[in-house]
Every structure is written in structure tokens, then in C-alpha cells.
Automatic annotation (TrEMBL):
It comes from Elaeis guineensis var. tenera. It is found in: Vacuole membrane. One of its GO terms (biological process) is intracellular zinc ion homeostasis. This is Vacuolar cation/proton exchanger. The keyword Transmembrane applies. Gene3D superfamilies: NCX, central ion-binding region. The chain crosses the membrane at residues 66-88, 94-113, 125-147, 159-182, 194-212, 232-250, 285-304, 316-343, 355-378, 384-403, 410-430. Residues 93-252, 285-423 form the Sodium/calcium exchanger membrane region domain. Keywords: Antiport, Calcium, Calcium transport, Ion transport, Membrane, Transmembrane, Transmembrane helix, Transport, Vacuole. Belongs to the Ca(2+):cation antiporter (CaCA) (TC 2.A.19) family. Cation/proton exchanger (CAX) subfamily. The gene is LOC105049425.
Length: 456
């Protein structure tokens, strides 16, 4: 095969292009990687293999695998178009839209590259890479928004990512999977769902405590100050990060079988989820991962800088864009993969994608954003306001009750999807800029706040 040559050239720890059984079947692939792999396609290397120069053949092979090895390759032109729109000042709303579209294939390619690196590093390091890079888009957007002082955009986008995974992705997957498998019993392993539900409840508790602190202050029940709420948020963030580290140890070491059993059963029978060999060498994968991260950072800066202009141009509130649009577009590839596996009656992978991603955002990205803001001297807390926190808590509870019996049908997915639509409608009607949400959530409606509502 043509890939053997450049694998031997670039993969220093490969011998003759062959991989051990452990590296083939235990290279750290998780539900996130498997979900993204459903959108990949094998590249035709016939023409590339005819190139005599090994260095040029390796470069062309990498380019083909990176840009043509995904079904989302049609969205790659949005990346240079977004950069061009920014420099030639085509319109800030256009920059925002093109940047969002460009982030979609880049997020899928980051997942692909972390999986390629995991072939060489082993399952533990590969799992850690996926745990840190799985939601790289959300984290990078959050950092740029914090740098720009847009704390409410950070909070709304992170809450929206959790809601999207729990209600939209899982609901659509269960609905489509149930309709496609009406005559089959759809079941899944409850153990993985219980672990993620417990961590999500811990995250909801850490969000509720600062919120209850603020309401206790406003009602005069307590004499704590805003500084105390900020300190509580930072302490809760440290606890959440410790819980996430314990979760990684649980997932990658002590109870690894709970998260890999589905992959091992289907590895030999499903050509979508099984790849016996890496297609890119380790140095190239690292270089491409660095390059993709830089491009994601550039587009994330565009998104953060033009979100208000897009809100004014489209007549949609910043809260709705942050909670609904950003998570949907940013994780479209991963979400599509979860739905595809639900069609194939592989709900363990679907749950691993939706619940795993929600847990990753709640227990890793959110507290890390608070810690990063702390380092930057920005006062970001875990008080996500009453409406957002209430929606988050109810979404977690509804999801936990939906998954409690270990079986699924289309009605469960339909209910979850309707919950997401209702929440989305709520934030669409709430035509309130982020800096006015405090008054509304406290129940104090000023003249500006009342005018901000769209009459039904």
C-alpha cells in the first residue's frame, strides 16, 4: 500500500508499517473518535502512489488524508473565505457565519488527528488527548471571549453546549434510532450512563450554590459578599476538576471495560469504526494538530469579535446565538456521528458521545474557564443566572430519568427533543443583551428590561 512507505518514513516507532494488536485495538479510541469516524471516507491514493519522490508523496498523501478524508470537506472553503471576509471587511455578520461554518470540519479533523496520535502513544495517552482536545473548540472560544471581557457569552455558550448534547443530540439520536429500529429492542449499558449522570449532577450542584448565594444576599438572609461568591465558585471549580481527573482515571484505568466494550464487539464487523493502521505519521499528525489549533483560534477570535454584529444584523439576541447556534454548528460533526450510530442500533456509542461530551464540558471546560479567568484577573464565577441554571438542572434530571431503565424508544427521544425546542424558544423570545440578564433573573424588571421582551 502507498501508506506503508510514508508510515515507515514518519512513524519512528513502527516497524515495516505493522502495528501490534494492542495498538490496533487499544489505541485510545473513545465514543467521540468513533462518532467522528462515521463522517470519514477512505482516500484514493492511486495517483499519489505513482509519485516517485518519497518526500513529495508523503506530503501529498497527508494533504489528501487531511482535506479529502472527511465527508465535510465541502465546508473547508469557508475557512479562507472567513479570513478574506475579515481582511476585506465584507461585513461582520458574514465573518461570523463563515467562521462558524469553518469551525465544523476543523473540529472533526482535530478528533481525527488525536486518534492518529493515539496509535503511537497508546490507549492511556490517547484517551488523555481526547479528554483535553475533544472540546477544543469550546475551550478556545471561551478563552478568547474571556480575553474580550465577554463573560456572559462564555457562560451561555458552555451551558448551551451541555444542553445541546443532553437534549438535542441525545433526543434526535433516540428518536431516529427508535424509528429506524421499530421492531428491535434498543438497549444500552446503564453503568456508563449512571457515571456521567452522577458527574453532571455534581456539576449542577456547583452551579446552584453560587446562584443560591446571590439570591440569599438579595433577600437579606445572608451577609456574604460578591467576593465570597467568587471564592466559592473558584473552590467549586477546583473540586470539579478533581472530579474530572478521577473520572479519567476511572475511564482509562480501573473501569476501562465499561467504555470500550461496545467498540471491541463491533471492531471486526464495522468498517466505519475500525481502522487497523494510522494513515499519518506521528510528526505529521502533531504538526497538523498544531496548525489546526491555530486556525481554530483565529476563527474563534472572529466569532467572538463579530457575535454582537451578527445579533444586530439577524435580529437575534446574543444569548440565543451563544446558547443555541454556537454549540450546534461547532459540534455538528460529532452530533451527526451520534445519530448515525443510533440508526445502527448502537446506543452505547451514542450515549458515549452525548453524555461524555456533556460531562467533559461541565466538569472540565467550565471549571477550567473559571480558573483561566482567575489567572487573567477576570472575575468569572459559576453563577450562570436563574434561567440558564434552571434549564441546565432540569435537562440533567430529564435525561437521567429517560435513561434509568436501560432501554430506549422513539418517544423518549421525541420528549428530549421537545424539551430542547422549548428551551430554545425561551431564549429566542428573551430579547435581552447579556448585561441585562442579572435584573431579569433577580425578578427586578427595569424599563429597559421590559422593553427588551418581544410581545407574544
Amino acid at each position: 500500500m502507498a501508506s506503508a512507505g510514508y508510515e515507515a518514513l514518519e512513524g519512528g516507532n513502527l516497524k515495516g508499517g505493522a502495528l501490534s494488536k494492542e495498538m490496533r485495538h487499544g489505541h485510545g479510541r473513545t465514543a467521540h473518535n468513533m462518532s467522528s469516524s462515521s463522517l470519514r471516507k477512505k482516500s484514493d491514493l492511486t495517483l499519489v502512489s505513482k509519485v516517485r519522490c518519497g518526500l513529495l508523496r508523503s506530503l501529498l498523501t497527508n494533504l489528501q488524508e487531511i482535506f479529502l478524508g472527511t465527508k465535510l470537506f465541502v465546508l473547508f472553503p469557508a475557512v479562507p473565505l472567513a479570513i478574506a471576509a475579515h481582511y476585506f471587511k465584507f461585513g461582520r455578520a458574514w465573518v461570523f457565519a463563515l467562521s462558524l461554518l469553518g469551525l465544523t470540519p476543523l473540529a472533526e479533523r482535530v478528533s481525527f488527528l488525536t486518534e492518529q496520535i493515539a496509535y503511537y502513544t497508546g490507549p492511556t495517552v490517547g484517551g488523555l488527548l481526547n479528554a483535553t482536545c475533544g472540546n477544543a473548540t469550546e475551550l478556545i472560544i471561551a478563552i478568547f471571549a474571556l480575553y474580550g471581557g465577554k463573560i456572559e457569552v462564555v457562560k451561555c455558550s458552555l451551558v448551551g453546549s451541555i444542553l445541546s448534547n443532553l437534549l438535542l443530540v441525545l433526543g434526535t439520536s433516540l428518536l431516529c434510532g427508535g424509528l429506524a429500529n421499530l421492531r428491535k429492542e434498543q438497549s444500552f449499558d446503564r453503568k456508563q450512563a449512571d457515571v456521567n449522570s452522577g458527574l453532571l449532577m455534581l456539576g449542577a450542584l456547583c452551579h446552584m450554590l453560587p446562584l443560591m448565594f446571590r439570591h440569599a444576599i438579595s433577600s437579606g438572609e445572608l451577609t456574604v459578599t460578591t467576593v465570597s461568591t467568587l471564592e466559592l465558585s473558584r473552590a467549586c471549580s477546583i473540586v470539579m476538576l478533581l472530579a474530572y481527573i478521577a473520572y479519567l482515571f476511572f475511564q482509562l484505568k480501573t473501569h476501562r471495560q465499561l467504555f470500550e466494550s461496545q467498540e471491541q464487539e463491533d471492531d471486526d464487523n464495522d468498517d466505519v469504526t475500525s481502522e487497523d493502521e494510522p494513515v499519518i505519521g506521528l510528526p505529521s499528525a502533531l504538526a497538523w494538530l498544531l496548525g489546526m489549533t491555530i486556525v481554530i483560534a483565529v476563527l474563534s477570535e472572529y466569532v467572538v469579535g463579530t457575535i454582537e454584529a451578527a445579533s444586530e444584523s439577524w435580529g437575534i439576541s446574543v444569548s440565543f446565538i451563544s446558547i443555541i447556534l454556537l454549540p450546534i454548528v461547532g459540534n455538528a460533526a460529532e452530533h451527526a456521528g451520534a445519530i448515525i450510530f443510533a440508526f445502527k442500533n448502537k446506543l452505547d456509542i451514542t450515549l458515549g458521545v452525548s453524555l461524555g461530551s456533556a460531562t467533559q464540558v461541565s466538569m472540565f471546560v467550565v471549571p477550567l474557564s473559571v480558573i483561566v479567568a482567575w489567572i487573567m484577573g477576570i472575575q468569572m464565577d459559576l453563577d450562570f443566572k436563574l434561567l440558564e441554571t434552571g434549564s441546565l438542572l432540569l435537562a440533567i434530571l430529564v435525561t437521567a430519568f429517560t435513561l434509568q431503565d436501560g432501554t430506549s424508544h422513539y418517544l423518549k427521544g421525541f420528549v428530549l427533543l421537545l424539551c430542547y425546542i422549548v428551551i430554545g424558544a425561551c431564549f429566542f423570545v428573551l430579547k435581552t443583551p447579556p448585561n441585562q440578564t442579572n435584573d431579569i433573573n433577580l425578578g427586578v424588571l427595569t424599563t429597559k428590561s421590559v422593553a427588551a421582551f418581544r410581545p407574544c
